[in-house]
Amino acid sequence: MRNITFTQIIRETLEAEMQRDQTVLLMGEDIGIYGGAFGVTRGLIEIFGKERVRDTPITEQAITGIAIGAAVGGQRPVIEIMFMDFITLAVDQLINMAAKLHPIYGQPCPLVLRTPPGAGRGYGATHSQSLERIFFGVPGLKIVAPSDAEDASALLQGAIRDNNPVIFLEHKLLYPMRFQVGDTLPGPSELGKAKIARRGEDITIIAWSYMTVLALRAAEQLAQEDIQVEVVDLRTLAPLDTETILASVKATGRVLIVEEAPLTGGIAAEIAARINEAAFEYLDYPVKRHAGADLPVPSAKNLESACTPSLESITKAASDLALAE
Amino acid sequence: MLLQEAYRRMLLIRNFEETIEKLFLEGRVMGTAHTCIGQETLSVGVAAALQPCDAMTTTHRGHGHFLARGADPARAMAELFGKSIGYSKGRGGSQMMMDSSIGFYGANGITGGSIPFATGIALDAQMRKTGRVAICMFGDGASNQGVFHESLNMAALWNLPILYVIENNGYAMSTATVRGLANPCVADRAAALKVPGIRIDGNDFEEVRECVRHHADKARQGKGPAVIECLTYRLSGHSRGDPRVYRSREEEENAWKKDPVKTFEKTLIERKIASESEIELIQQQTAQQIEEAVQRCEQAPEASLDEFQNSLFSP
What we know:
The complex is a heterodimer of chains A (325) and B (315). Chain A has 325 residues and is an alpha/beta fold.
């Protein structure tokens, strides 16, 4: 076993996939010589050269569109959008081109777009958003949001080998976190499968990405108060693993969905609707959502913490729900 | 491509487009379509300059490019009929068809949407050293999208084998070029990035073919991209139901007098490349080909919902 950071395992996974397949190509702003804004691709340009680890101009729409074209041509591009907030500039190419290639034209599009969402670093309103909801309702796009290192590696391998466009979320608070992992990388995982990250019978918390980390810590604390929390780590948002969600909800009868982004119009709302449609009679209490404030993410530490789900707020929301009459 | 064959393709496109306009009027096809009447010689001129391995992307006004590249008119028309034999199995409609086996990578209905996509196809060609050149067709209107500048910059930086071929037909839907471009010469924009920018008569088949061939050869040799602006005129309206209030009937009549397909036909006769009876025969044959295409479309099965539902993701 080894103890390494999330950043390290992503880098190792990219390196292994590039060694395995000559068509895997990295593109993005400052990913080469600089090694990426978060240092994820550091050192890869020395191994693979500037053709396969391509520094691009600041031009998210063209990076994305060019990667889509290269994917259709025969490459397996993995592009980096430096902060998820910048993905707004690439939305046209993702929604109107990448998502349509297979269902309309019958053309595979093996593209991975890696990007860090999330608040917690005081970066402010345009460097802290979790915008996966923009793509969640777009048929044809896959969205992956791991919460630990082993899963991130397995899912990134799965995403690179998938013949469809995949948005791969690397929460910026995960990057410096350390994880126990095996001496060798895990094998690739199929996308679209949630996992039970912790077993418990009193209440289910559904989360993804960094919110799963907080949910697991909350579960740890609540166990001391004799509340047994089951944590469903979605890992993939699209396609959504409704089956695993429903199985857990039916067993516990109480469910809290945690989403970092604003409450309104979120992914949690869709999950809640699916639970109500398919498992209403199993519920002991109405489905609860715990999400970010309906405000832009502010930069001041106290404001940012107050506007985003935290360990304390999740623990309280879960405890309230578990004890509700 | 022999000149007689070039003429056949121009006529095929003209016939295809006129037939589609008629089918819309009769309510026999649904959706929308943007016809390219008046721009046929341009499409065929570009296609005649290419190698079979080359890639072409198109625009919302793309039937002409596709047919020039060798598409089956019945399968293209079937997209308007929403039939299963269509290139996109009836799911795409007029603006969304591809056939990579003939190097045709379609459009997506978003003006300028294919510009980075074509640039990516050129990147793949360069990485795999396939000798392929990408030809990105778009209009004067799309040249105003920021992504044109973004893509051209990257193509120039990376010396990609791509030609940006602009069909400047005078109008972005209803907006005349002079009302939409501060400098109405699109080719001039290339100079800012030190890319060759050439402006030619897009209705002159041989001028288009020679210019595209010359720059495609250079791109193939690793000399990077070029911008070729082809001046033409859209004789048809923007799409069906366009009342054409933005231009005068007199302007259109004058343009019709210079109909490039008729002009090309006259040149063939004058240069004794085809006799009048040969021209007539080609006219009959293309008319028959389109008639058969319509029949095939009408008889073809509807688009399959089952198949569509199972094709969201690629295996």
